[in-house]
Specification:
- The chain is an alpha+beta fold.
- It folds into 2 domains: 3-75, no CATH class; 82-212, Cytidine Deaminase, domain 2, CATH 3.40.140.
- It contains 4 helices and 13 strands.
- The chain has helices spanning 3-11, 82-95, 157-163, 201-208, and strands at 14-16, 30-36, 39-45, 49-56, 72-75, 101-107, 113-117, 119-123, 128-131, 139-147, 167-174, 182-189, 192-195.
- The strands form 3 sheets. Strands 7-6-10-11-12-13 form a 6-stranded mixed beta sheet, covered by helices on one side. A 5-stranded mixed beta sheet has the order 1-2-3-4-5, with no helix packed on it.
- Helix 2 crosses helix 4 (201-208).
- The N and C termini lie far apart (61 Å).
- The chain binds zinc ion.
- Zinc ion (ZN) binds next to loops.
């Protein structure tokens, strides 16, 4: 096969899921398709997350002699520190009425999180253009945070377009002029968006607690 397709397929392989044993684990960060008896699944591996989601179903009852796959999510840490969400709320209030952004990053080596402000190219009350923050060592993006100024927290069509290729959590803080700003959060995984129905209470507490700062 030609070099370009070989490279593409190596970077995004397809696995026939065995019926009588577990599929071999992914050895490095990346993505692969799993063809299973019960459909087609996308598996994503990063240092901080391992995720399996169904992306297609068979439309006819062809017998596929492969194993079954169940969706799963495995995180490499117990929780994202709420105080970093609170730190971002302080940034959002300072930037008001403009939007701002920051990344919560995590290192597998140190197991430490930190808040890294993005490098803003331009921002207004309804838009934000930025460059990613400089990361240190094996730090990776875990939560991509941005604020919505006076507007409520939600995911706009611009956000959907921006987040389409990423593997991350996305967090929006809105109504930044209020003592109780609104919060929206979701998991983004290569075009899959799963909005968090209940944002952790500890995040609200951290965001609302920054009012007096
Ligand atoms: Zn937005």
């Amino acid at each position: 096969m030609n070099l370009v397709d070989m490279t593409l397929q190596r970077s995004f392989p397809t696995v026939m899921v065995p019926r009588n044993e577990a599929a071999a684990e992914m050895e490095t960060s990346g993505e692969r398709l799993l063809i299973a008896e019960n459909g087609v699944f996308l598996e994503i591996r990063r240092s901080w997350i391992n995720l399996v989601r169904q992306v297609a179903r068979f439309t006819v009852r062809t017998a596929v002699p492969y194993g079954r796959v169940v969706e799963s999510t495995k995180l490499s840490f117990d929780r994202i520190p709420p105080d970093l969400v609170g730190q971002f709320a302080v940034m959002a209030r300072k930037a008001f009425p403009n939007e701002t952004g920051a990344w919560i990053v995590w290192s597998a080596t140190t197991q430490a999180f930190r808040l890294a402000p993005v490098r803003i190219i331009s921002h207004s009350g309804g838009s934000l253009r930025y460059e990613p923050p400089a990361l240190v060592g094996d730090e990776v993006l875990v939560v991509d945070c941005h604020s919505h100024g006076k507007h409520p927290a939600y995911f706009s069509s611009t956000d959907n377009e921006d987040d389409r290729h990423d593997v991350k959590m996305a967090l929006v803080i809105g109504n930044c002029d209020r003592s109780n700003p609104s919060i929206a959060a979701r998991l983004c995984a290569k075009g899959i968006f799963e909005e968090t129905e209940r944002v952790p209470q500890a995040w609200y507490q951290a965001v609302w607690a920054t009012e007096a700062v």
